[in-house]
UDP-glucose 6-dehydrogenase (Maribacter algicola), 454 residues
Amino acid sequence: MKITVVGTGYVGLVTGTCFAETGIDVTCVDIDKKKVQMLLNGEVPIYEPGLDNLLARNLEKGRITFTTSLAKGIQGSDAVFIAVGTPPDEDGSADLKYVLGVAREIGQHMDDYKVIITKSTVPVGTSFKVKKAVQEELDKRKVDIPFDVASNPEFLKEGSAVDDFLKPDRIVVGIENDRAQKTMKRLYKPFLMNGHPLLFMDIFSSEMTKYAANSMLATKISFMNDIANLCELVGANVDLVRKGIGSDARIGNKFIYPGTGYGGSCFPKDVQALIRTADEHGHSLEVLKAVENVNYRQKSKLVEKIKGHLGTNLNGKQFGIWGLSFKPKTDDMREAPSLVIIEQLKAMGAQVRVYDPVAMEEAKHSLGETVVYAKDEYDACIEVDALILVTEWSEFRMPNFRILEKIMNQKLIFDGRNVYDPEEMRELGFQYYSIGRETINNQQEQPVQVKKAV
Ligand code: UDX
């Protein structure tokens, strides 16, 4: 079998490389010449664990190639995956110009049957717009070439995308007929070894599944963040509450970790898009609107705690930030809570030192020269008034607190991911704030319970 993947961003590249791994002949197309050249040399432009080795192996075996020519790239393909970007346009809805542009180009160049699959996350109904665009181009050429469209949303988590693709929980495919179903079944058969299902459904439901999945996950996080904030007020410990509810299989123990709010390229965008789709249909998604508001509020939560402790004038104060990417194991800075926190600290006059194991270069695009880029986690804490942990990279889990207390101006930690044990912080003599748990204030005799909302 031969497939073409259009767009070598994060989704397209993982998709193409993982299909090549099964022995399929893959051609990836991208308009960016520099990127195509890099990829042909085996260089991966994004940070995604395992992807470079997988790409190198498949390049060597000749199972994957890259080109800037879509016309050439789709020759002889059984299936074409569209995995180009859908950036939000001025009013926040997904801009489909790239997706539909690719659809038109496919229509201009295809010369035999293909399944044309939308992989990008797109509003419900887009696959039919793809169908129309392809058909219009075929009509212009006055040719009668059969094709089908399909929707095949991705559920890849950045940082474990290769694993998620190779061992999926489920694969969702929206199709219109048996012919397309047969092609998709053949393509995905190698990934069904772990017994998880390949779910076929109509195209509208498939497109909707992607949004519903991400919105449900975002809901779990915002719900937990709200509960964590209440835990602080009533003197409960959200760690225990989380375990208490998570062991109920109906709730589950995943995606109920409170923190600094969800970020990334999917949750914020998809939640907004679904709210918009519903509004357009005259239906207000009240739960999801609250999910978004809670997330917005949560990104400022640590700064509220800092203000509560140090006051609102932070002139002359310096902070060390651990973790910049929106989550560990990625260099993705999109919608990262660190950006909101740093902006607010700077607005109050503070100086900021930052360290991230992977995302430093990426962060420079957003932060420029406004912060000091430290060479490691300890360098980020030299003469700071507080350490703020924003992203829970595993290398921040067991720092040497003896070094920290020597280099910091004061022993003060704001932990946005509940990485440290409050008891240990008490023993070590640190003042310690986290999310939804007791505040440790070692400057006083007794630990202080936060009494009002911060
Ligand atoms: C997500 C979906 O998981 C994936 O299926 C979809 O296709 C793309 O969007 P991703 O954005 O890579 O993947 O990250 P994910 O690991 O899902 O985390 C999303 C955000 O939620 C992060 O900001 C993370 O820090 C936050 N989160 C996650 C929490 O705050 N608490 C949790 O318990 C879990």
Remarks:
- The chain has a mean pLDDT of 95.
- Residues 154-158, 214, 217, 221, 255-257, 259, 262-264, 266-267, 326-327 surround uridine-5'-diphosphate-xylopyranose (CB under 6 Å).
- The two ends are 58 Å apart (CA to CA).
- The longest strand covers residues 2-6.
